Amino acid sequence: MSLLHVVGEAGPVLRSDRVLLRPPVLADHAAWATLREESRLFLQPWEPIWPADDLTRSAFKRRVKLYQRAAREDLGYAFFLFGATGDHPLLGGITLSNVRRGVIQSCSLGYWMGERHAGRGYMAEAVQAVIAHVFDDLKLHRLEAASIPHNVRSIHLLEAAGFRREGFARSYLLIDGRWQDHILFALLSDDPRPAYRRATADVASARPIPA
Ligand SMILES: CC(C)(COP(=O)(O)OP(=O)(O)OC[C@H]1O[C@@H](n2cnc3c(N)ncnc32)[C@H](O)[C@@H]1OP(=O)(O)O)[C@@H](O)C(=O)NCCC(=O)NCCS
Fold first, then answer.
1. At what angle do helices 57-72 and 29-38 cross, to 10 degrees?
2. Edge-to-edge, what's the strand order for the sheet holding 178-188?
3. DSSP state of 39
4. Could you tell me which residues come within 8 angstroms of residue 192 by beta carbon, excluding any fewer than 6 positions away?
5. Could you give all domains of the chain from N- to C-terminal order, each with its CATH number?
6. CB 43 less than 6 A from any atom of ligand 1
7. How far apart are CA 162 and CA 145, in angstroms?
8. Using CA positions, which residue lies closest to atom 19 of ligand 1?
9. Which of 57, 134, 190, 209 has the most crowded CB, counting CB atoms within 10 A?
10. Rounded CA gap, 56 and 53, in Å?
């Protein structure tokens, strides 16, 4: 897998062979709302309850503004995941949240796929690109993730990417309306990671350009 990082108008753009990741912009609303709506039953068991207005344009506008503010303040970085070829269909999303600097230098990874694009390896490739961004560009030390114990797809994805199990948190997150136990995973900057071929690494800047 080759990997290219550049900074676009809205922030960092991460590319690898089959996927392109960039920060969400307002113009993504229609594609995002369509993909989320058709994937509702697939996603809802693994996510917080969607507010009633979640898919509306005004809620999406608020969401994008929050993402942009978080990125400006180095608190979090959201990416939408697109196919790298053709008409670049929206496939899903990845969020880096809760960036903490100081003596911890960590953040948390979250992700989702549109149902019809899942299980084809796009997310595995995207997670590798984001891991490289977290450690090589954002210069963090630790990337955390958590999964409900029976989320086989998510656990497989994390372990294949090199994450290690670190613990078990009781009633950790309010998912699908219930406080649910989670397995805690982490990847450290110097942990072994599955190899990827980084053919081109052109990192113009680690920080996104504020919109
Ligand atoms: C979790 C999720 C993002 C993973 O995306 P994906 O498109 O399924 O992942 P990929 O196709 O890149 O597959 C990653 C790995 O999981 C494996 N996998 C895919 N579907 C699987 C399944 N149904 N059961 C077991 N493993 C599966 C793939 O084979 C691949 O492993 P490999 O690299 O050894 O072949 C996606 O399934 C999803 O959105 N699920 C619902 C929401 C969710 O669970 N969010 C995460 C909450 S922690």
1. 110
2. 3-8, 11-16, 19-22, 77-83, 90-100, 106-113, 142-147, 178-188, 164-175
3. T
4. 162
5. 3-188 (3.40.630.30)
6. yes
7. 12
8. 119
9. 134
10. 6
**Digit-coded pLDDT (tens) for 133-180:** 999 999 999 999 999 999 999 999 999 999 999 999 999 999 999 999
Q: To which H or E segment does residue 171 belong?
A: strand 164-175
Which residues on neighbouring strands pair with residue 179, listed in sequence order?
A: 174
Mean pLDDT of 200-205: 33
pTM as predicted: 0.89
Ligand 1 pocket test, pick from 50, 156, 163 with the greatest ligand atom count within 8 Å of Cβ, gives: 156
CA 152–ligand 1 middle distance (angstroms): 8
Residues 96, 98, 103, 105, Cα dihedral to 10°: 0
Q: Are 202 and 6 in contact (CB under 8 A)?
A: yes
Q: What is the pLDDT of residue 1?
A: 57
